[in-house]
Structure formats: C-alpha cells, structure tokens
Write a structure and sequence with these properties.
single chain, 9 strands, DNA Binding (I), subunit A, 198 residues, two-stranded antiparallel sheet, alpha+beta, 5-stranded mixed beta sheet, 2 domains
C-alpha cells in the first residue's frame, strides 16, 4: 500500500508528478503538501488524520489509529510548470513504440525486446529518437549490422522524437484511481507528459 501511486499537483492544481503513498505522507507531515479530496477540499496532515476512515476505504495503521490513503496531493509552494523536454531512454522508446517490434509487429514480453539502430552505428548511425526503434530479438539478430533494406525488413513507421513523455502517458492511460480523473481531464498529454525542471 505504501508503494502505490499518488497524483501530485502544483499550487495551481495542475498535475506534475506521480509519487508513492510513503512519499506523500512525508510531504504532508512536513507541511509541504496537502491532501485534495473528491470535493476539491484540502487537508493538512492533522486534519486528514482526524477524518474518520470508512470501512471500505484504503487506509494504513498509525500510532493514533487508521489513516486514509491520499490519492491526490497539492504542493503548497511549488508553482513551476514542467519544461518541454522528453528524456531519451530505453523505457520511453519502448513506450513510444507501444512495446511492439517495429519490423515484424510482434508484441513479445518486455524481456524479449531490444533497441535497434535503424542505420547501424557501424555505418555511422547515431543514438537518436529518429534512428532507434524497439525490436524483438529475432528481428534484431536478422538485421544485424545492416540497414532494414539490406536485411529485407521494413519499418512499420518512421521513428520520431515524441512531443510528450511516452512512459508517463502509458502510466496515466492505466490510471486506476477515480480521484485522479478530474485533474487529468483538464490537461492535454503534451503538457502533462514532460520532464520536470530541476
């Protein structure tokens, strides 16, 4: 339960991050954040702890008894907006390509996926969004150090730099907490799925 997800909003109630219940309680206790409930009311740690816990509500035990698990928190002083930069990472490439081989269209288990340079590095290809795709191990072996044309393979779609962070979008698409929905509906994916400023 302590490792399950909590949506984090900035001071303007815009979603900026997903954190764990454990971290959310730390932020609440330190008065850095407040819980937001279904009626958009906010609660500090003390007032949240004093709320009674319904029998079917998610909760954890504390020294003072059961306390409800927050699903949405708002930071009290953070009002910055994420910048538009998508991190080039293995997971973001897999998510951009929907965990599907870009040559054969097969959707193997994650451990059977690999990254492939469309123009091999041995032929001057670079590690960029426009030259790296998700591939299954079989297609990757078949292609080897050749271009797709030389290996008799065809790309399903041309790789490109996304304007949003694919992995976060994947996480949001599978959001299972009804308390998140009002905050996700007001923000477009290109804004939401960006890397935070330092």
């Amino acid at each position: 339960m302590l490792n399950s997800s909590v949506l984090v909003l900035n001071r303007s109630f815009l979603p900026i991050h997903i954190t764990s219940v454990r971290r959310a309680f730390t932020l609440l206790y330190q008065d850095i954040a407040r819980v937001v409930n279904e009626e958009y009311r906010t609660f500090d740690f003390q007032s949240w702890q004093e709320l009674s816990v319904a029998r079917d509500a998610e909760s954890i035990g504390s020294v003072r008894g059961r306390i409800r698990v927050p699903r949405v928190i708002v930071l009290t002083a953070f009002d910055r907006i994420p910048k538009r930069h998508v991190r080039f990472s293995r997971l973001n490439i897999y998510a951009r390509d929907d965990f599907t081989c870009q040559y054969c269209g097969h959707h193997p288990p994650r451990q059977e996926l690999n990254l492939d340079h469309v123009v091999p590095r041995s032929l001057g290809g670079r590690s960029t969004w426009e030259n790296v795709v998700c591939s299954c191990l079989e297609c990757n072996r078949r292609k080897g150090g050749h271009t797709p044309k030389q290996a008799g393979l065809k790309l399903r779609r041309k790789p490109a730099r996304p304007h949003w962070t694919p992995f976060v979008n994947l996480m949001l698409a599978n959001a299972r907490y009804k308390e998140w929905r009002p905050f996700l509906n007001v923000v477009d994916a290109s804004y939401w799925n960006t890397e935070l400023l330092d």
